[in-house]
Amino acid sequence: MLAGENPINQTVDPCEKTIINQTLPGHMFGGSVTISIQQINGVVGAQIIGTGLGPNPVTNQIMGPIIFGIYGFGARESLGSGR
Fold first, then answer.
1. Fewer CB in 10 Å around end: N or C, the chain?
2. Which letter does DSSP use for residue 82 in this model?
3. Alpha carbons 39 and 58: distance in angstroms, whole number
């Protein structure tokens, strides 16, 4: 979890099996992350795409994959259940 005020706008679309996090002014990172739950050949997984520019690029590059990998697993478990 991020410390301090790091506001985001989150859109969850269970029909499309997507979660989009868009940072708002004042967030320590800038940009968006889209988590899409996909099923290919019977295997359910999460595709995670992050984009953006912000004041903490090194921290974002190191911590982003860890944090959003955990979120992707959770999303796959909840959104992927309606296969």
1. N
2. G
3. 32
